[in-house]
Amino acid sequence: xxxxxxxxxxxxxxxxxxxxxxxxxxxxxxxxxxxxxxxxxxxxxxxxxxxxxxxxxxxxxxxxxxxxxxxxxxxxxxxxxxxxxxxxxxxxxxxxxxxxxxxxxxxxxxxxxxxxxxxxxxxxxxxxxxxxxxxxxxxxxxxxxxxxxxxxxxxxxxxxxxxxxxxxxxxxxxxxxxxxxxxxxxxxxxxxxxxxxxxxxxxxxxxxxxxxxxxxxxxxxxxxxxxxxxxxxxxxxxxxxxxxxxxxxxxxxxxxxxxxxxxxxxxxxxxxxxxxxxxxxxxxxxxxxxxxxxxxxxxxxxxxxxxxxxxxxxxxxxxxxxxxxxxxxxxxxxxxxxxxxxxxxxxxxxxxxxxxxxxxxxxxxxxxxxxxxxxxxxxxxxxxxxxxxxxxxxxxxxxxxxxxxxxxxxxxxxxxxxxx
Length: 420
Ligand SMILES: *Cc1c(COP(=O)(O)O)cnc(C)c1O
Description:
The chain is an alpha/beta fold. It folds into 2 domains: about 75-280, Aspartate Aminotransferase, domain 2; about 285-415, Alpha-Beta Complex (Aspartate Aminotransferase, domain 1).
């Protein structure tokens, strides 16, 4: 069993194997078992009553009281221990895990918006999120306004005010770095805007989808975000073998999010929760290998004569405002990059079709390197003029760098590029 008197400054990666679990709960098992059960027996009727009072918010939890196990839609040890471990990376008070990144995102937006509200969101967004915002939320009377990484604070404020809904701003939602261009949003600037439209009774919430860089290299809560969201399908899961999501924030926020999760029933199951705990043990090791590989791959690409441009955080020119945001918000350039080949769709497809080690697939953050064509795949339904404005062109290839040997990834890219 992990001893309770560990020093405070112990790092998350040192705790991922044991935190929040006690082997005495399970016959001395060193690893947390899979609690594959739908329901939990109460020791007494009084316990059952007390657990429900807290779960349904009929009374406040006493300071030292834990929410007892009731039913796996509300709570389950595999979910709770996973949530406690995820909190460590972002130094968050609380966490709620979901059966997908999309269900995490949808639950946050449904909980914090109501008909008549205004939602501000950064562009480009993950395709599913963009669709949910523009085709679902708008049906329910929510007005949505897109903003870009290059909009200034004044321009954004002007957009809010000219909508006539400045009293109704509910959420500023953003994805940074943006997929697939790696454009960066300034979270602290958005906090200032949110505060300007908040008052004692109403706080404008800032929600950041941190899937691309978290939870290792970016911690949005430190920069003024209220809510951090992950598709745990990506780096957190890290093996391209599950779908899951997570939301982090204060006890108050996660209390509300878990309330809606209970009624939508979109929590993860115990098996996925257990797989994610296993993934978390190697999160830092995996992501560091991927990051180091990406440095070498980016260097190779930028010097290749069939490559026109590389979209990689490590290449943002010093002295630009994007560079300032990069230095402030991120501790690494990450392992996601895109590049433009010389030519167009035909040349990009030629490279993709000739890759031998790197697989042609969407998704990202897994142990294997993946390549795809944003223009016709992940961003196929973004209108052409918007794609052009954001720099998503037919010649662009997106690469999620894996844990293979960097020389082998580079060999594969080199032989595929030579086919152009
Ligand atoms: C994949 C992804 C999502 C959606 O997550 P799912 O787990 O597939 O539901 C949301 N945001 C970003 C940035 C993603 O990459």
